[in-house]
Amino acid sequence: MPYTIEPIGRIHSPYKEKFSVPRQPRLAPSASARIQLIGDANSPEAVRGIEQFSHVWLLFLFDQNLAAGWKPTVRPPRLGGNERIGVFASRSTFRPNGIGMSAVELKGITHEGSQTWLELGSVDLVNGTPIIDIKPYIPYSDSIADARGGFAESTPEVLPVIFSTAAQMALQPHPQRQHIQDVIEQVLGQDPRPAYKKNKADDKEYATHLFDLNVKFKVETDSTSAITDVNRNFIHVTSIERF
């Protein structure tokens, strides 16, 4: 029997496209977001009492991937994008029903006229992602101290991020310059390129749409002692332009 799911909200986040979205929440802690509740869910009554919880679970749709379908096996980025495992042993965005979930910080509830918003900490969702449910995170049952993380046991490596003079100048007049620079550093430091390019310098220039900015960058190898990263690779933000 088929079931119909209607979104109860939409995410407003700095990530305007799939490329460069962190692969898990809280990897870019400065990148806050909001949920705009919609339809019957847009009611102060629907979120009454939720402020008692510091974190919530978000259930959402990978709406940009639904048309592409899914396969029983996938190549997780944490395994270098080469080894195949079952889709249910991964957090692949290509799933039978296209449903994802994230545990995120709840910073508060705001009301703007008749519109109710949930203010969130760092998320891993593209701007506009449909939210299909919100549930409180309950530490005593949801946090399992001795759980095993399989192939994703450790925190991902973060590369240093260096801004060119031109990129720094482009950010200078922005009213939220420091906040935006922090987000760019945290996002690009995860190295958003395809998994098979991880830890490898690359002559190609990439671009990603964050906030109202087009951020261009390269992954380069440092030839001096200024960068102390094990692989001596770093992210070089070459230019920043406003859309």
Automatic annotation (TrEMBL):
Keywords: Methyltransferase, S-adenosyl-L-methionine, Transferase. One of its GO terms (molecular function) is tRNA (L-threonylcarbamoyladenosine(37)-C2) methyltransferase activity. The keyword Transferase applies. PROSITE patterns: TSAA_1, TSAA_2. The keyword rRNA-binding does not apply. It comes from the Bacteria. Gene3D superfamilies: YaeB-like. It holds the Pfam family TrmO_N. Residues 5-146 form the TsaA-like domain. GO terms for biological process: methylation. PANTHER family: TRNA (ADENINE(37)-N6)-METHYLTRANSFERASE. Belongs to the tRNA methyltransferase O family. This is tRNA-Thr(GGU) m(6)t(6)A37 methyltransferase TsaA.
